[in-house]
Write a structure and sequence with these properties.
With 224 residues, the protein is α/β, with parallel strands linked by helices. It is built from eleven helices and eight strands. α4 packs across α11 (204-213).
């Protein structure tokens, strides 16, 4: 089956180019597109695409909040941000809102296609250029930052907790993790809570940032 993709971008020319690129792949197809958030929210409810490829800045506004709204309208779909913004704050904000990937528009076509295929497998993909920036932000923090504490903190996790940590960092849902490991969702939630507590993290964005900083999750080369 082909990966069904919905494009959200306010530039018609870019949408056209993306449509040609994606439809030229044997395993992908564009099932719809929109030039603004309201139209996208309405369309994805009926189309239920596998991937929603969206820009953050449309019609003069930032749309990080739209990521969460799209997830509610299409809970089975994954969101891949394609934007010109390379600031690490936007990366963390997008992941916290529910995005599974982040790629800048200056990236090569091959990287965008790789990101789509990666996310379709339920994994997280962060463009190397912006992922590297997130890591640099962490390394530039004080010596009391999570980066410096990473080895000791990871050592506190049990084998099962490390397994849950890796799967959450990749973007798997609690249900997917439960199915993969053959345990209950309640157990996954318990392990996940322990991981967050032991690592001193508050959100999935913090967890992904931590995974990037300590090399557990590599930008542009997702954890398998």
């Amino acid at each position: 089956m082909k990966i069904r993709i919905f494009i959200v971008d306010d530039h018609a020319v870019l949408r056209s180019g993306l449509r040609l690129l994606i439809n030229g792949q044997p395993d992908m197809e564009v099932v719809g597109e929109a030039g603004e958030a309201p139209a996208a929210l309405e369309a994805v409810q009926s189309l239920l695409p596998d991937i929603i490829l969206m820009d953050l800045a449309m019609n003069g506004h930032m749309h990080i909040d739209t990521i969460g709204e799209l997830r509610k309208c299409c809970p089975s779909g994954y969101i891949l941000v394609l934007t010109m913004h390379t600031e690490s704050g936007y990366v963390r904000g997008s992941l916290a809102a529910g995005a599974s990937g982040y790629v800048v528009k200056s990236a090569a076509d091959t990287e965008l296609l790789r990101a789509i295929r990666t996310i379709a497998q339920g994994k997280t993909y962060v463009d190397w250029t912006v992922g590297k920036g997130v890591g640099q932000d962490l390394r530039g923090a004080s010596k009391k930052s999570l980066t410096d504490k990473a080895p000791g903190l990871l050592g506190q996790l049990s084998p099962r907790e490390r397994e849950i940590f890796g799967l959450v960092a990749q973007g798997f849902t609690n249900q997917q993790i439960a199915d993969q490991l053959g345990i209950s969702i309640k157990s996954v939630e318990t392990y996940r809570a322990r991981v967050m507590e032991k690592l001193g993290l508050r959100s999935r964005a913090d967890l992904v940032q931590f995974a990037l900083s300590c090399g557990v999750l590599t930008p542009g080369n997702p954890l398998h």
